[in-house]
Amino acid sequence: MKNLRVSLFLLSALVSVTLKAHESLNTISGFVSPESVVQDAKGDIYVSEIGEFNKDGDGKITRISIDGKLSTFANGMDDPKGLIFIGKSLYVTDKNRVLKVEADGKWSVFGSTMAFPQTPIFLNDVTSDESGNLYVSDSGNLKSGGAIFKIAKDKKITLVLNENSPEILAPNGLWVVKNDLYEVDFSSGILYKINLKTKSISKVAEALGGGDGLVKSGDNFFVSDWKNGKIYKVQGNKVSLFKDGFRAAADIALSFDKKSIITPDMKAGSVTIVPIH
After folding, report:
1. Which residues, at least 6 apart from 246, have a Cβ–Cβ distance to it below 8 Å?
2. Which residues, 6+ apart, have CB-to-CB distance to 4 below 8 Å?
3. Non-local CB neighbours of 184 within 8 Å, separated by 6+ positions
4. Tag placement on the chain: N or C end, fewer CB within 10 Å?
C-alpha cells in the first residue's frame, strides 16, 4: 500500500523515477503556448509560457511544484522560450535578450540586444557548457538569417556561427558535449556537430522535420519536431520515431533523473512526461 501511495504521488506531480515504458503518459494542461521546460533538483518543473506571440509583458515562467500545483514563478516577460539552470539561477531567452531569474522569481537582463555582435532576431534555445558559459540560438526568421552566440560568465557575447556558414539557416535546439556543440536546425531538419575550437561543422543526422528541442541521454540524442508533433531518437546517424501524437512538440528537456523526456506541446497548451525506457 505504501508503494502504491508513493507511485500515485509521483504521477500527480509529473515527477517519476519508477515509470516504465508501457505505463501511461503523464500530462498536465492549462498553459498558454508553452515553449520550453526544465526541472530542478527538488523535482519542480519550470515552464516558459509565451502567451500571445509578440505581445510584450504577458510572458511568464510557471512552476509545477512537487505536489502538482501550478504557480507563477516569474512574469512580465515578452516571449520567453529556452530555459536552463546554472546553480540556482534560471536563464531564459526572451525575443532579443537573455534574462537571468533568481530564486525569488525576480529577473534582470543578462545579455542585452546592444551587447550582441550582431542584432539578434529570434533568440530561441539556450544551453551551457561545464564552465558555465551559455550558448544561445537565434532562429532568424525561422527560414534563414540565424546565428549562434556564446555568452561568457562575464557577460561578454561572441559569435559562434551565423548565416555566413551555409549550414546555419534557423538554428534551434542546442547541446554541448565537451568541445562540441550540437545544433538542430528548424528549417532544414538537420542535426549538426560544431567543433567549438575549429568551428568545423559536420552533419550527424537529417530528416528531423522542424527540429526544435535537443537532449542527449546516454549515447542517443532525442529531437522534437515542432512542425509534425513528433520526437525522434538519433542513434549514431540513424533516425527513428520515438513518440508522436503531439500537436507541436517544442523545446524538450531531460528530467533531473535523466529517465524521462519532459515535452511542452505549444499548440495543445500542455506538458507531458515521456519515459525513455
Report:
1. 224, 229, 230, 231, 263, 265, 268, 272
2. none
3. 171, 172, 173, 190, 191, 192, 208, 211, 212, 214, 223
4. N
Residues 150, 194, 218, 271, Cα dihedral to 10°: 50
- Does position 120 have pLDDT exceeding 80, yes or no? yes
pTM of the model: 0.90
Residue type, 228: N
Task: Determine how many CB atoms are found less than 10 A away from the CB of residue 90.
Answer: 23
Rounded to whole angstroms, what are the CA distances from 39 to 5, 15, 55, 82? 23, 9, 27, 13
Asked if 2 and 10 count as a contact pair (C-beta separation under 8 A), the reply is no
**254: left (phi > 0), else alpha (psi -120 to 50), else beta?**
beta
pLDDT (tens digit per residue) in 141-185:
999 999 999 999 999 999 999 999 999 999 999 999 999 999 999
Q: Which residues pair with 244 in a beta bridge?
A: none
Instruction: Note the pLDDT of residue 25.
Output: 56
Residue 270 main-chain phi, psi, to 5 deg: -135, 165
**Judging by DSSP bridges, how do beta strands 59-64 and 171-177 pair with one another?**
unpaired
